[in-house]
Amino acid sequence: MEGPKGYIAGSLREDTGFITQNDIGPARTLMVGEGNFDDEPEEENGVNDEIAEKTYEIVEKRMEERRKKRKEIREKKEQEEYEKKHPTISQQFADIKDEIKKMSLEDWMKIPEATGRRNQKVQNEFLEGRHMPLPDTVIVSNYNLNQIKGTIIPTQTDLIQLGNTRKKTLQLSLDGSKTSISSVDVNGYLTELGQNQELTENDVTQIKQYKFLFKSMRTTKPQLAVGWIQSALIEESLGHLSAARKLIMEGTQKCPNSDEIWLQAIRLHPIEVRSDICASAIAVLPKKPSLWLEAIELEKNIIEKRKIAHKGLEFVSNSIELWKKTIELEDGEIQKQTMKQAVETLPQCVELWIIFAEKESYENSKKILNQSLKILPKEPLIWIAAARIEEIKGHNPEKAIGIIKKALKYFDKENLSIEKNIWIDEGVKYINEAKATLKGIIEYIIDYKEKDLISFWKHIEQTYSNDEITKMIYQHAVQVQPQNDELWMELIRVCGNDEKEIEVVFQHAIDVIDSEEIWKKFVEWCMKRTPSIAQSLLQKIINKGKGGESVWLGIIDLELNQNHLLEAFNYVQQGIKICKSIRLIKKGIKIALSLKDEEKENEMILSGDSIDPQNVGLILFKIKREIRKQNFINARKIYENALKLNETSVKLWDAAAQCELHQPGSFSVSKARTIYERGKNKNPTSQDLWISLIHFERENGNKKVSDSYLSEGIKVCKSNGKLWKEIIQTSPINKKKTTCSDALRAFEGRDKDVDYANVVFAVAEFLYNSGKKEKAEEWFRKVIFIDPNYGDAWIWIYKIIYEKKGKITDFEMKKKDCIEKCSLCEHKKGLIWSQVKRRNECCQYSIEEILEKGRLAIN
């Protein structure tokens, strides 16, 4: 049998030739060098390898030794740290073991057992080494003797069930012990070393650890008071007062030069022996003021107190606290003499100079403070005290402000830094007695030209929380920066509902404010007050010729709310002459329409033409006027001329279409459709125009056409949120959920702008109508998060809150919160909101009225 192709017999065994009975010919020829493959070509390379291997072994051995040494050091360090944190039982009870070593055998024998009973025989056998455990046979025989005879064999008991029962019983016991441990009051078991540590009597390990630590401190360094004090505190925290007193008194002997340990000894001992300990302490440390002060406190007799105080000053004449205590104890002439001695002894002490000045009469106070300023002219507290005494005792607030001004000039001259907080803190302390002093500090200390003035005062306001200080700050701030609207608004906020304060603020504002924006905020604030206050304030502004358009609109709205149409129209006429406002013109036209007075309407339109003839709002009024008069040709001319200049105005295209619809004849609808088609061609991406066209077709019964326009508009318009909202609202009930999903999916990856709010609003409406009111409220709140000016969303939120009336306890608070947040937003929009406001063109509804009427409109 032939082998496989290419097979060479013996090649794997490296055979080069062979002869068999069936010789197959010559074997494979060897390749060059193949026969000498295992021979070493160079002996020198082998020697080098051996040297390298020896070198590597030496290096590896050295590195291994170094690693082993480092590992041993590290492990030793870790073991030491672990032993510190987890001391052994012998370490924990080392102090007890030292005492146990001294016990004799008789003492050991006298120690009772835990049960309170002793078995002398068993103990002696144990001590003499003759104890032997009982054999199993004895145990078994006793067990059999005690077995109950009967039909039920005890050995048939279910041991698994018994084990489970024991397990449950043990678990209940553990749970009970856990509860009892967690209920222990730990507040009474305290000690401190750098920081307070809470100890409990149950935490034996921690207590022993602290005891061992402080005992080591007492042993190694008995001259340190901290070890004795902390040991005594631990004993006190555990309720061992006698041990604590013993330790602290031993500490006073070991380190008598520490006043802290003496004070702790006084505190720990009963009241009747405290005076004796204090006397002993003073005998050892007569120059420690803390001990003299403690002696004064322990003494009950006022005469003895004075004697102790004066005696203390003989030893410690440089103690400010001791001088202050002595001055406080004395009265009359002796007190004055004591104060004089105090400032003579410590002329650099500011507190003593101020106390001396405050205790004296007005004239003497001035002399004392003048004398102190010669010694300490760089101390701000003395300058402030001088101003305060001038105001309180001298009844001269202007001079007090002058002293503050003089002080600051001196500080500037000497290039001394002015710490604002020090000056303000000192002024705030006496705000009720010395307001002029604080006012002077506020006027001259704070740099009102700083850029961060508002943030700086916010910090001051939070620090002191005092409306009086806030008012002073802003009263001066508005004088320095009269065109800063934030300062004026903060000042009005602080004034609150105080009419007199507000009138003073407005009187000052009238003289300095020129900014229209600030007056606009003033008017908004006024409109929230009572009508009488608002009208009075606005009238004063108008009489001064200030305020501009916003003030005139404010006073006109006040008259309209009271249904004074003629008075409101008169204000419109006056305002137009002064500020030439197109908003006033529109307001005047609405009032004229309410009065049904064509002459006044024409007058307003003519005034508007003189101001801005191309204004879209004014053109709309003209078109409506011509439609009312049935002058359709004039109306057509007006809108055609207007559309040439304003092709993008959706309101103009709507007005033009409505003009054609109002014309008699069968072609009015087709003409209106033509107008909308023209507008759509001019503005193909205006979704508002698409919606107008869709509504027009739907109203005229062309539902298929309106649906086709809706589909086309979504594709054409980039901003198509309103169109998606229209689709959701008009789709069948069984398809609304799918439509909502499609709409939300269409806005994935796009900016969540105001247009997106329309889609979210439509989804929220669907959720509400599906009965998911809580979820609907969340989605309505998403709408106002995206667009806070979405008025319809606010109405729905108000409606959902109102439906919870009687069901929730904080209904009034939530209702008030909704109204307040809604009032912060301007230019509300939405179909329901616009309809409610349009019902009363003249009078201005409040936010609460609009929300209430909107809620009823939805119902």
From TrEMBL:
Keywords: mRNA processing, mRNA splicing, Nucleus, Repeat, TPR repeat. TPR repeats lie at residues 757-790. Pfam families: PRP1_N. Residues 36-47 have a biased composition (Acidic residues). This is Pre-mRNA splicing factor, putative. The keyword Lipoprotein does not apply. It is found in: Nucleus. Residues 4-115 form the PRP1 splicing factor N-terminal domain. Residues 51-86 have a biased composition (Basic and acidic residues). One of its GO terms (cellular component) is U4/U6 x U5 tri-snRNP complex. Residues 1-87 are annotated as: Disordered. GO terms for biological process: spliceosomal tri-snRNP complex assembly. SMART domains: HAT. It comes from Entamoeba histolytica HM-1:IMSS-B.
